[in-house]
């Protein structure tokens, strides 16, 4: 006969299993399912192509598709509801690698984060958004409970005042323009274009560095970024490079 | 005064009944299918099989039967049969994303019917576990313009997809290729209205009780295949969506939209709430009025008990008791000495006038609203009187009294000295698609016709046939 404590534990475990059954998009599976475990064709294609040095502008809607992406930093996150402002501040102010708020890395450059050796990848997305889950999955990295860093360089033909950095991300993220934090997306978010926008900013003539950090627990991670002018229209007369 | 001592349980039950704006009974469900009527009863199915049945649309109990377990079914009546669709995930819901969508037929949804027998389920869509889609959460649309049958499905794992089914077989149209129509939502549902196709999806976090941020958003398109844009022109393929309903009234996390057209000008939407704080924080069935504002669907509010002016949409006059008007201190009040102190004037109260009222039946009329006691109606749900889809029956009494509004056999209105619970004293209140209200007695004595409160003249109420195109049939409830 089960004692009360055992039955209580059993009840809790059963309830946890029942709740977990519906959390497919919210919680990491206890182990990788056999289909993805046996997916020998894993690749970041067709979700990414290697970045080139060809002249590239934002797309027709102003989205920036050329980025340097760091392989995911492994985290331990059970639920996406933890992404409060204070949580994100602490996570994003943590020192992960040298010069993380100033560096414009090179493709293939390696950084050490804790026990992980992580590579920077210079990539372009065929779509308006950058599918970080596919980036991690294709590289056979951890896909849930991860932190990504992204950097790009926006070249402006002139000084532009009153522009806004418009971001959507899944999940929480923070974004910096030329070293200054521009916008933070807190909470358990889905990626929605123009979800959060920065206060009015000035784009320098010439080089401007946009840097982002996206953190997510269970579920797909991605982001989309564009610049909006003072009328809310996308800024497109820019070029995007990675140095 | 006679005081009745009620047990704590009874008081709690009464409190629940009078405050509940979700359904009563045992309306516990997750991912409910669009409500369907079969054999004179209402049905909705949920995740893991089974579902709820209601005789009247207000009190729900378990007992519906759906084989296949799986998740988040939908139901659509086509001809004299019901097509039931559900998702079964091959990898298990806690694991991979290789899902299957299956359809099956039944001539009845009622397990007590001799016609109740499901056909063998057939797979109509799937996901391989790797692609940017998870075949789960199906929603059906029979296009009223051409009779074509569409199925949307998917969850946060990639795209919401659209495929075409054969409305005769419920199987996939041969050679049909899936279209991507949205991202970052789940529990999609398609509806059609006035030349627009609407794609509804659930955003936010599921399955965390009172912490769930589930909410329902919508985009629309002139074509069923999209693109579906929100109210600022943002594609749902880029995450766009206009809010239809989110948390409120102590109910949190609405998801899994379904539309039910009650009749001309009366539509309801079904959903589940992840947590109803008045019902243990459990996931419950929700039914709310569905309004249309500037071509967009938005959830209306279930009627709340209170004291109201009942205002005619026709003239803006108010329903009132046909009693003598009792003057307040009046006369010319604009030729004053400005040095005199200004003091508030008390409102006219029931005690000031009730002794002048007849004690028997009193007629009802419509007149200028002066916030006088004979114009203030207390409206509250009647315990154990049953209800209709999405609401309980109400009593409508003059505030502070038991004098109740009632229908007469002559299809006119009267007030009786005391509410007895007779069916002609029970009122159904439905918010209309334009936000105004229809008010109907449960019965008109001696008649089988369903009539509504109407303005026969600016100052004369009556019971008549409801006409959604006439302001004579519409009323507003105002709080002053």
Overall structural class of chain B, as computed from helix and strand content, comes to mainly beta
Helix proportion range of chain B: under 10%
**C-alpha termini separation of chain B:** 30 Å
Total number of domains of chain B: 2
Q: How would a textbook summarize the main sheet of chain A?
A: 10 strands, antiparallel
Number of strands of chain B: 35
Total of helices of chain B: 2
Multimer state: heterodimer
Quote the beta fraction of chain A: 25-35%
Name the CATH homologous superfamily of the largest domain in chain B.
Glycosyl hydrolase domain, family 43
The helix/strand series of chain A, from N terminus to C terminus, equals: HHEEEHEEEHEEEEEEEEE
Look at the structure and give the mean pLDDT of chain B: 93
CATH class of chain A: Mainly Beta
Question: From the coordinates shown, what is the CATH architecture of chain A?
Answer: Sandwich
Protein name (chain A): Acetylxylan esterase
Family (chain B): Belongs to the glycosyl hydrolase 43 family.
Pathway (chain B): Glycan metabolism; L-arabinan degradation
Active site (chain B): 31 (proton acceptor), 186 (proton donor)
Brief descriptors of the model:
heterodimer; A: 243 residues; alpha+beta; Jelly Rolls; five-stranded antiparallel β-sheet; 15 strands; 16% helix; disordered N terminus; B: 480 residues; mainly beta; Tachylectin-2, Chain A; Trefoil (Acidic Fibroblast Growth Factor, subunit A); five-stranded mixed β-sheet; four-stranded antiparallel β-sheet; 35 strands; 3% helix; 41% strand
Description:
- Chain B: This is Arabinan endo-1,5-alpha-L-arabinosidase.
- The complex is a heterodimer of chains A (243) and B (480).
- Chain A is globular, with a radius of gyration of 20 Å.
- Chain A has a single domain (44-241), classed as Jelly Rolls (Sandwich), CATH 2.60.120.
- By secondary structure, chain A is an alpha+beta fold.
- In chain A, a hairpin with a 2-residue loop joins strand 4 and strand 5 (116-124).
- Chain A has helices at 4-21, 34-37, 85-93, 132-138, and strands at 49-50, 66-70, 73-74, 110-113, 116-124, 130-131, 146-156, 160-170, 172-177, 180-185, 196-197, 201-203, 206-216, 222-228, 239-241.
- In chain A, strands 1, 2, 3, 4, 5, 7, 9, 10, 13 and 15 form a ten-stranded antiparallel sheet that branches. In chain A, strands 6, 8, 11, 12 and 14 form a five-stranded antiparallel sheet that branches.
- Chain B folds into two domains: 22-299, Tachylectin-2, Chain A (5 Propeller), CATH 2.115.10; 306-325 and 347-478, Trefoil (Acidic Fibroblast Growth Factor, subunit A).
- Helix content of chain B is 3%, strand content 41%.
- Chain B has two helices and 35 strands.
- In chain B, strand 11 (149-153) and strand 12 form a beta hairpin.
- Chains A and B meet through helix 1 and helix 2 of A and loops of B.
């Amino acid at each position: 006969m089960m004692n009360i404590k055992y039955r209580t534990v059993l009840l809790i475990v059963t309830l946890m299993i029942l709740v977990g059954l519906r959390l497919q998009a919210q919680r990491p599976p206890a182990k990788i399912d056999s289909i993805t475990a046996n997916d020998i064709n894993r690749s970041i294609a067709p979700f990414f192509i290697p970045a080139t040095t060809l002249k590239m502008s934002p797309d027709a809607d102003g989205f920036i598709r050329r980025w340097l992406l760091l392989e995911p930093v492994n985290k331990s996150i059970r639920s996406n509801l933890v992404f409060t402002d204070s949580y994100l501040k602490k996570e994003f102010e943590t020192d992960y690698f040298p010069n993380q708020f100033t560096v414009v890395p090179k493709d293939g450059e390696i950084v050490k984060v804790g026990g992980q050796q992580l590579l920077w990848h210079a990539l372009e997305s065929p779509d308006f958004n950058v599918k970080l889950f596919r980036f991690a999955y294709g590289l056979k990295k951890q896909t849930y409970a991860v932190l990504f860093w992204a950097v790009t360089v926006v070249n402006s033909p002139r000084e532009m005042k009153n522009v806004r950095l418009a971001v959507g991300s899944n999940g929480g993220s923070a974004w910096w323009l030329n070293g200054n934090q521009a916008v933070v997306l807190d909470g358990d978010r889905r990626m929605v274009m123009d979800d959060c926008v920065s206060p009015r900013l000035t784009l320098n003539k010439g080089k401007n560095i946009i840097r982002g950090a996206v953190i997510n627990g269970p579920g797909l991670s991605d982001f989309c970024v564009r610049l909006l002018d003072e009328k809310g229209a996308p800024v497109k007369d820019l070029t995007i490079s990675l140095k | 005064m006679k005081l009745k001592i009620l047990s704590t349980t009874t008081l709690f039950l009464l409190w629940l009944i009078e405050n509940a704006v979700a359904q009563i009974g045992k309306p516990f469900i997750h991912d409910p299918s669009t409500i369907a009527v079969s054999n004179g009863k209402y049905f909705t199915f949920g995740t893991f099989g089974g579902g709820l049945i209601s005789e009247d649309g207000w009190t729900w109990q378990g007992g519906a039967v759906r084989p296949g377990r799986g998740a988040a079914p939908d139901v659509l009546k086509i001809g004299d049969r019901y097509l039931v669709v559900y998702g079964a995930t091959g990898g298990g819901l806690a694991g991979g994303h290789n899902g299957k969508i299956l359809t099956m037929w039944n001539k009845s949804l009622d397990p007590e019917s001799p016609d109740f027998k499901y056909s063998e389920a057939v797979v109509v869509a799937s996901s391989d576990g790797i692609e940017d889609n998870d075949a789960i959460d199906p929603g059906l649309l029979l296009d009223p313009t051409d009779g074509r049958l569409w199925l949307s499905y998917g969850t946060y794992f990639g795209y919401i997809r659209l495929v075409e089914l054969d409305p005769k077989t419920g199987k996939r149209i041969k050679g049909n290729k899936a279209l991507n129509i949205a991202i970052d939502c789940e529990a999609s549902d398609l509806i059609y209205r006035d030349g627009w196709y609407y794609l509804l999806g659930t955003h936010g976090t599921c399955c965390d009780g009172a912490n769930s941020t589930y909410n329902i958003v919508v985009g629309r398109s002139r074509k069923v295949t999209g693109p579906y844009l929100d109210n600022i022109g943002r594609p749902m393929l880029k995450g766009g969506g206009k809010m239809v309903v989110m948390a409120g009234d102590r109910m949190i996390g609405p998801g899994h939209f379904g539309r039910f057209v009650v009749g001309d000008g009366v539509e309801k939407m079904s959903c589940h709430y992840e947590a109803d704080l008045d019902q243990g924080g459990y996931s419950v069935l929700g039914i709310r009025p569905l309004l249309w504002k500037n071509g967009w669907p938005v959830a209306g509010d279930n009627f709340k008990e209170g004291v109201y002016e009942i205002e005619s949409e026709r003239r803006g006059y108010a329903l009132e008791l046909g009693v003598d008007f009792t003057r307040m201190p009046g006369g010319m009040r604009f030729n004053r000495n400005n040095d005199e102190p200004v003091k508030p004037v008390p409102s006219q109260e029931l005690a000031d006038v009730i002794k002048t009222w007849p004690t028997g039946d009193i007629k009802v009329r419509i007149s200028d609203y002066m916030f006088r006691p004979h114009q203030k109606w207390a409206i509250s749900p009647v315990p154990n009187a049953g209800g209709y889809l999405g609401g309980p029956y109400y009593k409508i009494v003059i505030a502070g009294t038991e004098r109740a509004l009632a229908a007469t056999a002559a299809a006119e209105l009267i007030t009786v000295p005391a509410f007895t619970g007779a069916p002609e004293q029970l009122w159904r209140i439905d918010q209309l698609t334009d936000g105004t209200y229809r008010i109907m007695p449960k019965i008109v004595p001696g008649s089988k016709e369903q009539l509504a409160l109407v303005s026969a003249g600016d100052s004369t109420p009556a019971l008549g046939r409801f006409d959604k195109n006439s302001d004579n049939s519409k009323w507003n409830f105002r709080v002053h």
